Structures are given as structure tokens and as C-alpha cells.
Amino acid sequence: MRTEDLPTVRALDLFAAMSDESFADLMQGAFFQRFPPQVMLIEEGDTADFLYVVVEGMVEMIAQGNERETTIAVMEPVSTFILAAVLRDAVYLMSARTLERSRLLMIPAESIREAMERDPAFTRAMVRELAGAFRGVIKSLKSQKLRSAVERLANWLLVAHDDQGANGTVTLGIDKRTLAALLGMTPENLSRAFGTLRGYGIEVAGREIVLSRPDDLRGLAKSNPLIDDRET
Amino acid sequence: MRTEDLPTVRALDLFAAMSDESFADLMQGAFFQRFPPQVMLIEEGDTADFLYVVVEGMVEMIAQGNERETTIAVMEPVSTFILAAVLRDAVYLMSARTLERSRLLMIPAESIREAMERDPAFTRAMVRELAGAFRGVIKSLKSQKLRSAVERLANWLLVAHDDQGANGTVTLGIDKRTLAALLGMTPENLSRAFGTLRGYGIEVAGREIVLSRPDDLRGLAKSNPLIDDRET
DNA sequence: CGGTCGGTTGAAGCTAATCAATTAGAGTGG
DNA sequence: CCACTCTAATTGATTAGCTTCAACCGACCG
Prior knowledge:
In chain A, helix 3 (20-28) runs antiparallel to helix 5 (109-118). The radius of gyration of chain A is 19 Å and the shape is elongated. The first copy, chain A, starts with 5 loop residues before the first helix and ends with a helix. By secondary structure, chain A is α+β, with helices and mostly antiparallel strands. Chain A is built from eleven helices and eleven strands. At the A-B interface, strand 4, strand 5, helix 4 and helix 6 of A face strand 4, strand 5, helix 4 and helix 6 of B.
């Protein structure tokens, strides 16, 4: 196993507070694995055997049903996914698929549960992590239930704009169909939503978006920190 | 403080595993309080001062924004709410309002955080609780993004039917406007959705619903355990 | 008995999904 | 470098689902 990334993993909030021994134990059964793009890592309904950490690349969390499929979240380095299923020793509620060539750290679920038994600091970090994740989903649900498609897009753009330095441009890190699924709409509707935003100073050229009048956009978006602010 | 309900609280998964001392400490600063119906207990944006336990009555969790309001969940005895905000020492993401005359146990947020520092068994119970809550919201989000309004209602009815003994009838514990908000639709649309379900053996008389052909309903609902099953 | 409130019904409009066709772009191989 | 291919994205036309507004009904309550 390549160890040069271990410090990065160790630095995650989830692992930072735990003791050196606990961390060593945890990494005992863990391993890195590379995956090509568009690989299904897990399928909803599978039993939770591993906790995943995205070290490089990008992973899409997907929900299926009703002959449809929607994107719940997109995970970027360095973050974990399907923690809740692992902790409950339950079945995954979401599938995961790589969006790009990715490198993942896979930690056996059993190791996680054992570490929790032994290391209270780790357990507490887990509580913080889960509470944050919970709040994240609540925000998604609020966005979905309280906003129109155009509003969701506008707010997503404003958040991305801030993340990327608020210099008047946004570069999409994912393709538009994935963005559409994430925002809960069809690709066609996303395209039209971008069209609507043209009236608010948005120019789209492939994956490059220009926000020429952010304040106009904010007027439309009616951003709400209780939906849009990232958990700290 | 009335102590006759403490055993009930103690029996909750969240509190069952903790030590007697920890529990005593936790209850030290806690108190019961009665509220009339339709009282706003907390408003989203407030800082999290208390963890609430619904001991009697019913409480609605609400999200606001965009001059709208939607119901995220309805809490019944005996369960806790706004745990995540308390743990993160953050601001509430949801408001809470009593639906009926209710009695709540209020535990100071600080006590919860202290108990977590001292009692690892409590912290682990917290992890389980939060993981379960997380999975619950994911299910709501899936339902919202993958199903139509009629399908959401059909599945909600089937779950309620099971909960109430699967004897062919369901009694609504909440009024229809609240149910509509919970399912993410308008009251008018809920009314029409019930109308549609008449074709599947559903008869509605006030709060009494008869499911004369549950299998028909199941055919329409296309239930999915990964959305509809309760966390154990 | 009148009033209020929750629920229902009808009509109209709007948002978003669907279906179909076209265009744009990225990558491939000659 | 250019044609060729494949997929992503856009655009147009239509339909479906849901919301909105308004009127109405019926139960419960003072």
C-alpha cells in the first residue's frame, strides 16, 4: 500500500483526533485502489463492507428507483463516503460510481467499528462528521422542496463561484448531465435554465461560465445560509 | 421535574447504554415542559441551546425559505430532535412547532456535549442515532427526487398501513395539509392524489382511510425497501 | 344560526419532463 | 490535417404534473 497519502488521510477531521495506535490499527486492513472512470464501486442494497476515502479523482453518489436515477452528491478529495451504512452495519442506500480515474482508500467496515469501540476520540470525531453529513442532506432536501430548478442552479453557481475565488468565472468540474441530476432536473431543463440565467448576466461556453453581474444573480437566487453555506 | 417519565427516556436507544452517573448528570439541568398546540418551539437560525425529547404529543419539523414552508418530518413520542445542531454547536436548520398539546424534555446542549466527553458508550449510541437519522433523510431525498406525488402518497399509506397493523385501514395522525407538506405537495394536489388512488381501492372519509385492495396499491407504489423501510 | 377552518373541486397557467431532431465537441484513425 | 464517429449538449414541440386562484362544501363551535 502506498503510504505517501496516509498523512493526507490522517489529516481529515474524521481521523485527526484519534490516537496513533488506533490509526495504525485502522490502516492495518486498509488499502488503496485505483479505478477507471465510470466504474460502479458499490450498488445500493449491497452490505457495507468498506468505508471509502476519495484520495484522488471524483465519485458520484447515486440513488436509483422507479427506472430512474439521480445524483445525491459528488465527492471530491479528500472525503469519505457511505459512513452511515458502515456504522449501522447496514445495506448501502446509495450507489457510487467514479466520474474520473480515481484513487480510493478502502477501510474494512469491521476495522472502523472496532476503532470506535476502542478510541473515544475517534467516536467523537465520528459524531461530528455524521452530524455534519446529516445537516448537509437536510440542506439538499430543503433546496429540493423549497426552490425551483432555476433557483437551485443560480444558488449552486453562486456557491461554486465563491469556492473558486469569486473572480467572475466558474469552471464546471462535472459534466452538465451530472450537474442536472445533482440539481434534480433533466439535462434539457438545465440547458434551458442556463438560458434563463442569461438574463441575469450568465454566459456559458462549454464548462466555462461567466458571471458578469453576480448581484443580479443573487437577486434571483435569494440565497439562504441555512441552505447554501457549507458546514464548517 | 416529573420523574415518572424518566424511565421512558432512559429506555431510548440514545440513552439506554450510558452509565447511571452520566444519565443522572445529563438530567441534572434538564426539565420537562408542556406546550399548547401550534407553538413554535424553535426557529431555524436560532443557536442550539437544547436537545428536545418528545415525551407526549407531536412536533412538526419545518423548513422555511422563498416565502414558502415545508414539513421535513413529524416527530412522535418517544424521539429526539435537532440532535445534529446541538452536537455541532451550530444554528438550527429547521424550525419546530407543536402539532398537538405536547410535553417535551429539554436537555441543555452543553450537558449533551459534556456527557459525550465523559461517556464513550453514550458517544457510540450517538453515532448510531445520527447514522440512522442521516439514512432517514437520504430516504426522504430519494423519495422526493425519484417519485411522483401520487407515488409518494401511495408509499406513505402503505407504510402507515403496516405500522397500524395492516388490517385494511389507516387513521391519519396529522391533518391533511401537514401530510401534504410532508410529502412535498400542496393540499389541493394531495386531495387530487387521493382521488387518483380511488382507482386503486382507496376510500377516504375524513381521517379514516380504507385500503380495500392493498395489492393494487402496491402495484402502483412500486415500494422500495431502500426508501420505505424504517431504520431499525 | 352564522362563522371559521379544513378540505374539496374546478379552471387556468406554469414548470418541468419527454420525445425528437439538430448541433457542437472530443477523440480516432487514416 | 481532415474526415469520421460517438457522445454531450442544445433546441423545438408537445405533454404531463403540479401549483395557483377561486369558489364551494361541510363539520364543528361559539
